[in-house]
Amino acid sequence: MSKIIDTFIAPPCHDQIEILYQDESLVLINKPTGLLSLSGKNPQNLDSVHHRLVQQFPGCTLIHRLDFGTSGLMVIARNKAINAALCQQFSQRTVTKVYSALLCGHLDHNEGVIDAAIAKDPALFPLMSICAIHGKPARSGYHVIERFYHKLEDGRSLPLTRVQLTPETGRTHQLRIHCQQLGHPILGCDLYGGRLLPGTEQTPRLMLHASELHFVHPISQEPIKAHNASPF
């Protein structure tokens, strides 16, 4: 097995984490784009969601992660028992996650499901790949909100589709690689073709935002339906 060497150095993130809700058990946050979820092995990648929050909430742990470029909702456990209870909900797939995204081009269909297994390939790191033989099952639903043209400074028009994405599984880079598989990569996605179309090269961020998170509060057993509007 080839050894994976991560050479990525995250640029400084000056945006703050927005705390949307907190109690004795958990914290709901809005993660800014350009911030790692967990600190990397490289000391230059110390800044992260966990690094910042553990100063305010000692002993807190991440239940799930968002990619560096993805913004939006994350739930953080404040102790081990809550971590175990929430992890169980995620692993049993009783948590609903909804994302907002801008895709390159205009999609033909208004909705559909992408069913394509995803595998890690150390030779391609950090890219994941679609692989029916070695990949883990992965399913994502999509629903078109609107098709429109974004006017560029040079007068050209960039066709874009605003979609709602609902991953049924939680593989690394799942939504990004599934949208590429669909033929419409997420705008601003440097790994999976979202900066290849003319006019997309200077996109300021990955246009992917975790906009909804539905789960059951481990203590009160109340259903929590968190919403956080997309910034784009």
TrEMBL record:
Assigned protein family: Belongs to the pseudouridine synthase RluA family.
Name the UniProt record assigns to this protein: RluA family pseudouridine synthase
InterPro entries, alphabetized: PsdUridine_synth_cat_dom_sf, PsdUridine_synth_RluA-like_CS, PsdUridine_synth_RsuA/RluA, RluA_PseudoU_synthase
Domain named Pseudouridine synthase RsuA/RluA-like: residues: 26-181
Pfam families linked: PseudoU_synth_2 (PF00849)
